[in-house]
Amino acid sequence: QNLVVKANAPIADIQPTMYGIFFEDINFGADGGIYAELVKNRSFEFYKPLMGWTTAMAPEGVGSVLINNREDAQSANPRYAAIKVNGGQLSMVNEGFRGMGIKANLDYHFSVWARQKEQSNLSLVVELKNAKGEVVGSTTVTPQGTEWKKYTASFKSSQTDAKGQLSVTFKGQGAMDVDMVSLFPGDTWKNRPGGLRADLVQLLADLKPGFLRFPGGCIVEGHDLSVRYQWKKTVGPIEEREMIVNRWNTEFAHRLTPDYYQTFGLGYYEYFLLSEDLGAEPLPIMNCGMACQFNTGEVVPMDQLDPYIQDVLDLIEFANGDVTTQWGKLRADMGHPAPFNLKYVGVGNEQWGTQYIERFVVFEKAIKAKYPNIIVVTGSGPFPDGADFDYAWGELKKMNAEIVDEHYYRSPQWFRDNATRYDSYDRKGPKVFAGEYAAQSVAIASPDNKNNWDCALSEAAFMTGLERNAEVVTLTSYAPLFAHVEAWQWTPDMIWFDNLRSMGTVNYYVQKMYSNNAGHQVVPMLLDGKAITGQEGLYATAALDKETNEVILKLVNTSNQSKTTNVAVEGVKKLASRGKQIVMQADSKDAMNTLDEPTKISPVESVIKVSGNKVNVTLQPMSFTVVRVKK
Ligand code: AHR
């Protein structure tokens, strides 16, 4: 097939935000996932206060564990464990999040808030154990005094085990109160104490994402408004952050996760820091005064929206305000005096109907009045082809909205058919944020959905349409991002992990090929004078990289025949005689990566020869190819 690229006729700039990340604490994405805390229910605030803990004593009856509540004194973290021991020993064992992933020769950092009772001399023997219950590392902590104080101690693990556990044994005579019992590995991302799991962040960093959307998803909304995401409760000292039940706690019967809570160790400060580390624009999505419409549909009356709006304004101050402002000072106190340079704020996740639009109008007006340069992102509901979607778009166009967030969890076929979706979008209307999308191999939210090659290749085909329409589409993100293999509620997901290992799915590598080869300007790429949108299974787009002076071709062959394409690049004097070819291919639509073979299907790079201004690219059956050639 003869294809033509018009390298001197750019259609539009590809925004640096084009390929980003959607983060939500679903599938143990944060607690039990990227947030490296190993102790589950460290502050006894779960619905069942000792969930995750078992107690044992010797001799039997020698002591007791009672959960006390000091709600009046400390409403954010009211419960603590009151321990009594009369001469023997009492142990509390924490099971971790489906076990604790521990590594040989790695340092582990234990901490606890504690106070002795008068006349008491209890010590804590802290032991890391393997799955068999054998001690693989230990230390002892002896709290002093009757005031609450944080104690820390470190030790090494002598073994690697995906199912470790932490035992804390109280020895001696007396009584003691403990809270915030915590254990972190010493290999967190950038070695930050209390930080993030480095292998998972590295997978994100490798994507070189343009933005980081957080904290969701449905958890922005909550089942009801009392458990909506409130950023102010997620900043400041960790022991003062108020934990809430996760929106995905036991949501789907096929994967019960009654132990799913949000401790907010990964809170808004950490999200901003992560965005900065990744070189990604932070994109917080804020509650718009509505709970999840799939659940209660609870809304705040229009005349009581002020606190919700104030939360958005204060967040902008937290991110960008100088250190003399109330919220800017908090950011500085937390360790980041320089502003985070927030540019975008989303209002509402998947909301629809008149209730959403009338609320959005009020938010947008207030945000723009105080921060005219902040770009406000609006939603369009979860049904991309339905009446609600059309209504939202109609209203948002009238309002001249800036960016509209569209979500689609659809079949692979839908993705292939929708490579032309944005060809007809109004170039002068609102920009599009494809904020959540993923091909579903069975059906939306089916537990049987797979991260297979059919889905990933269909997404690659669809994404040619995103890029070709960069004039309209300015931000895109696959969703959901993370899933723990033993604690998920939703599939497919971009990155899967267990307590020690992690892997990018085939969908991850498609995203990576796009984001690592985005380019700066989209140029026409034609077959018989037309955009290449699925003719005999061929999808393609072309871009220019202004920094490296390269032409970038992206070619997707969804057919099961190999194809020889002859790409003539017009508008250049000559191309370099060699370029780079990056190919992803699988022989079966069902092919997938696994934790045992994490890169089985991943991009393979080779040299491609170029003659004059022509590149001959052989596209393997069911393959995605990127070619980069210098002009
Ligand atoms: O990504 C999973 C969920 O899908 C998100 O929380 C929600 O926005 C969408 O319905």
Structural write-up:
By secondary structure, the chain is α+β, with helices and mostly antiparallel strands. The chain has three domains: 2-13 and 522-630, Golgi alpha-mannosidase II (Immunoglobulin-like, Sandwich); 21-36 and 189-518, Glycosidases (TIM Barrel, Alpha-Beta Barrel); 53-185, Galactose-binding domain-like (Jelly Rolls), CATH 2.60.120. Helix content is 17%, strand content 35%. Strands 1, 2, 25, 26, 27, 28, 29, 30, 31, 32, 33, 34 and 35 form a 13-stranded mixed beta sheet that branches. Strands 4, 5, 6, 7, 8, 9, 10, 11 and 12 form a nine-stranded antiparallel beta sheet that branches. The chain has an eight-stranded parallel beta sheet with strand order 3-13-16-17-18-19-20-21. Helix 3 (306-320) crosses helix 4 and helix 8 (453-468) packs parallel to helix 9. The protein is globular, with a radius of gyration of 26 Å. The two termini are 22 Å apart. The structure holds alpha-L-arabinofuranose (AHR). Alpha-L-arabinofuranose binds at residues 24, 26, 216-218, 349-350, 382, 407, 436, 479-480, 490. Keywords: Glycoprotein, Hydrolase, Signal. GO terms for molecular function: alpha-L-arabinofuranosidase activity.
What attributes characterize this protein structure?
9 helices; TIM Barrel; 35 strands; signal; globular; 3 domains; Jelly Rolls; Alpha-L-AF_C; 13-stranded mixed beta sheet; Immunoglobulin-like; nine-stranded antiparallel beta sheet; GH; glycoprotein; binds alpha-L-arabinofuranose; alpha+beta
